[in-house]
Design goal:
With 140 residues, this protein is an alpha+beta fold. 21% of the residues lie in helices and 23% in strands.
Length: 140
């Protein structure tokens, strides 16, 4: 695989009382510290910086695989990982989960979130979210 066209996706599931809490309190980046603007999400997953323009986040009343499958076409590059993601999710207890977060990265001429390729902090236990999936792929 040519490094210049490698892509990556990470996915986490979580539980939030409301969609507003997810977006305003958890994903919103706090710029009060000029040296290190960060979101609670970034702190939880150990990413000091990521480009949130390449993040997808979906809040549901309850995370349901059948409902999630309806959004497959809305997700960037989903044909490269979505079926594997569903298999991984089917192994998990989703009863209390209502959120799924996706973060995309790319190496090459125009790198995006390239830190994800070396990111290995998957242990977000006792946090609001749980790491569930990582996949590197390339577009053919």
């Amino acid at each position: 695989m040519n490094l210049s066209n490698k892509k990556i996706i990470y996915a986490w599931i979580g539980t939030f009382k409301s969609e507003k809490k997810l977006y305003e309190k958890y994903l919103n980046i706090d710029y009060s510290n000029d040296d290190l603007p960060q979101s609670k999400f970034g702190k939880d997953v150990g990413l000091e910086y990521y480009d949130d323009d390449f993040m997808e986040s979906w809040w549901f009343k309850k995370l349901n695989l059948n409902e999630l499958k309806e959004y497959k076409e809305d997700l960037l590059d989903s044909e490269h990982f979505f079926d594997e993601l569903i298999i991984e999710l089917s192994k998990r207890n989703l009863d209390k989960r209502n959120t799924i977060l996706f973060l995309f990265g790319e190496n090459g001429e125009n790198p995006i979130n390239e830190v994800l390729f070396n990111h290995n902090n998957h242990s977000v236990n006792n946090k609001r979210i749980e790491f569930i999936f990582r996949k590197e792929y390339s577009l053919k």
